[in-house]
Design a protein that fits this description.
The structure holds two protein chains of two kinds. Chain A is α+β, with helices and mostly antiparallel strands. Chain A has 27 helices and 27 strands. Chain A has a seven-stranded mixed β-sheet, sandwiched between helices. In chain A, strands 6-5-7-13-8-11 form a six-stranded antiparallel β-sheet, with no helix packed on it. The N terminus of chain A is likely disordered. Chain B is mainly alpha-helical. Chain B has two helices and no strands. Classes of the chains: A alpha+beta, B mainly alpha.
Amino acid sequence: MSISACPACSAAPLAIEIAAKSAVAGDIILSLPSIHCAGCIGTVERALMAVNGVTEARVNLSRKRVTIAATGIAPEQFIETLEAVGYEAHILDAPMMASVDTDSEGRKLLLRIAVAGFAMMNVMLFSVAVWSGAAEATQKMFHWLSALIAVPALAFSAQVFFRHAWQSLRVGSLNMDVPISLAIILAAGLSVYETSVGGESVYFDAALSLTFFLLVGRYLDHRTRIAARSAAQELSALASPNAVLLVDGAQRTVPVTTLNVGDLIRVHVGMRVPVDGAVTHGGSDMDRSFLTGESLPVHVSLGDQIAAGEVNLTGPLTLRVTAVGEDTTLARMAALVETAEGARNKYTALADRAAQIYAPAVHLLAFVTFIGWFVLSRDAALALNIAISVLIITCPCALGLAVPAVMTTATGRLFRRGLLVKNGTALERLSQIDTVVFDKTGTLTEGHARIDTAAMDQTTLALLAALARASNHPVSKAIAAALPTLNSANITDVTEHAGQGIAANWQGQSVRLGSGKWLGCSQSPALKIGDAPAIPLHFSETLRIGAIEAIAALKSAGIPVHIFSGDTTEAVDTLAAKLDVTSAHAQMLPADKMARIKQLSDDGAKVLMIGDGLNDTGALAQAYASISPASALDASRAASDIVLLSRSLAEIPDAIRTAKSARLRVLENFGIAAAYNLVAVPVAILGFASPLSAAIAMSASSITVLVNALRVK
Amino acid sequence: MNVLIILIPVSLVLAGLGLVAFLWTLKSKQYDDLDGDAWRILLEDEKPRDD
């Protein structure tokens, strides 16, 4: 790069180079569910750039990801680096994400909008001159110039409509794109003919503004949809791309795809298990919360089965592979999501339902007009001219904007309150829900269990704190985190018993903290002081902010609330009692959750599912509408319609209210479009339509629809 | 009206320049992370000016 006198000039091209760089092979992509501001971008990029060997780290805040260009560093190391600065990170499979990330369709739409906009503005200038009285040679020249700009611009920009119209015609159906394409083609054709014979009816500006506004509507629609990428794709990308293979005692890092059933693999602490397997060596605690919803880690030892997607927390494990690729639990879950998504896609958007009535009606009207005028005047050219003007006037400029404009306002309003709407039809579906199902761990609660200390005296607490702080076990860590201000008791001779607990010496007595089985107690974990009976430790979970308010508001609105959880009956019942929810179901497998939601739907309920774990993805996709908190994994977020960016659940009843208001505005907009047609169509049929009246009617109706869209509450 | 012969091409060229500039921004992927770009302006420059 050349040296420039002004720092801004030399910095600018660099910024562009970085921005232009997309994910290439060898790049590492991490999902960062918790980033949200400039501070986060700065911290993450600085922390990653400080790692030796990193040449570039670029955060994409919209997608909550970071792309890292580095050589010879394992992705796990970056996860540790980011955890050290306080950010949760997950590995995404780079080649797979690169294929979904390039939004080439959106870029093409923008390109078409730009061309249509450019042509529209220039042609409008000529049209204004013609309408205000340019005549004879000037008028003719301006018409030819308009044609010169409009015809190639239309041929390029309106291709989207032509292609969709053709696709729909080929299978013998009519969608909104058929009358749109016909109107554009006929308007351009008629205008070229009129220009060549020196006539007055030149509709280039109408054809271009129609194309421009409809493309804008199409792009708004696309934007809301692109955020909602296929959940299944992200689920697969989440699977760890690499595994540590053991060959004759030596460790080798290989791609997961090369593993076979029967291979021995090593799973280090902090790693996500890449395939299903059975433990052949070592023991550890596994975090299964994303798979099962259990809030406490589960201990595994020799012979235990481990599913892909679990996270190893405490000790290295050697696994014998029992299932790879498509057969793993994670892949089977992805398949569940795929089938469930197919069911949701059957929902027909309001706009499409309107088109099903509108498209045949418009064609019929234009055809009848042509026949009528031909019978009356015996002049085919005149009849055709009037029939085309009917098509142009009725063309659904307002109808095309009716839905996207309202949706853009509503999603913008919700975004400012911390709700990200990702699916185009999400709000329509949300406005109709009549049942709400909550997941427990991570959704109604913060996801981390806290110890309930109400029934313990000071000495017991001090001992508990001392023992818990001496251990690295995740349960101990959870206990220690709940007792941060306590002075711990003086204990000596601390020994850790793997898979059982921790023991120490206190004033000549033996004190132990560990599993119930080890200490002769019916519950786990427990604390035993000397020879006294073991004290069972109860865990309670911290409620998410706004959970009580949200459930109360839903119930007062007459919407029944259920809790579906994978956690233990005890944990679920305690929480349900606290939240005053009568229908709470515990120990549900992912498939159970899906089946229950399907059953509710079959009984006629429209279910809103709110959940965060991998075990909820199937249920999220199965439900009529779904919301997941931002703390959820990418896969669950991708399976849901709406992501809750704020910590508080209290926004959910408000979101339902906004959705209802948005639906009402959409219906009103359809009403406005219909009313406008009621006035304009008879004028056109009677043959009084002129290019100027078409332009005025089109802009007036579009503006009314846009203004009405702003009334969404 | 002869001035039109100059003015019309001039207006077309100017508008065309705007179009080309837009296409360039599109091609250099400046619309990929609009949320992030909005925040990035608040970040402090990591390297102070040399002069």
